[in-house]
Amino acid sequence: SYELTQPPSVSVSPGQTARITCSGDALSKQYGYWYQQKSGQAPLLVIYKDNERPSGIPERFSGSSSGTTVTFTISGVQAEDEADYYCQSADSSGTYVVFGGGTKLTVL
Amino acid sequence: QVQLVQSGAEVKKPGASVKVSCKASGYTFTSYEINWVRQATGQGLEWMGWMNPNSENTGSTQNFQGRVTMTRNTSISTAYMELSSLRSEDTAVYYCARGCRSSSSTPAASPWFDPWGQGTLITVSS
Fold it and tell me: How far apart are CA B109 and CA B76, in angstroms?
């Protein structure tokens, strides 16, 4: 089965930069996507196709890709950014969608 | 605005079946796949499968093959996910999500999910 690996947790102080990585072999062939999930809410798409930002998503949210790793970055973290973040992609054939295990972002 | 609205929470006994609905609005229902994702309490997201509302073709992970049925009623822009032979481990919030692809996407390209329904809590308990 195909897997995406994320760190379980990341902690940053307000105003600092938070980076969350997601690794998986098929990421060299597939785009990575990122979702924000606040407590008790449905996930919200925040980055698509590695580095595209949907309408309405703050500019401080960005994404990048290198080899088999995609990275989600929040520049100038705010208290409201505290949430779980999930990466998503698919196997190289596009048959099976997979999510990373999620990263809990704590704003100190 | 584009929106997916799901049916309400349900409590089921082990061995029973449950059917969750997902009503789409704000876009052409048959133009986008509907995907189903579940999340057990305190756990991560687990993709279950997809349905093409135009063709009613479906696909699901091995974990759910034989137990999940995805259907739709195009006249009311509503997708359904039925899960049978429920067990306690199926207790979770179930989400529907619209699968998006760009016009330049190849068939093998992964979709992204936007928007998501609000989620439906299914509790399996004797």
Answer: 29
What's the CA gap between B53 and B72, in Å, rounded? 6
B98 CA to centre of own chain: 9
Per DSSP, which regions of A1-108 are E strands?
A: 9-12, 18-23, 33-37, 44-47, 61-66, 69-74, 83-90, 97-99, 103-107
Distance CA B80, CA A65 (A): 35
Q: Which amino acid is at B3?
A: Q
Which of A33, A94, A99 has the CB atom closest to B108's CB atom?
A94
DSSP B111: P
Sequence-separated (6 or more) residues with CB below 8 Å from residue B33: B50, B51, B52, B53, B98, B99, B111
**8 Å CB contact between A41 and A57:** no
Q: Which of A97, A99, A103, A104 to mutate to test the interface with B (most CBs of B within 10 A)?
A: A97
Q: Exposure of B68 by Cβ count < 10 A (0-12 exposed, 13-18 middle, 19+ buried)? A: middle
Give the model confidence (pLDDT) of B19-74 as tens digits. Answer: 999 999 999 999 999 999 999 999 999 999 999 999 999 999 999 988 999 999 99
Q: State whether B95 and A99 contact (CB < 8 Å).
A: no
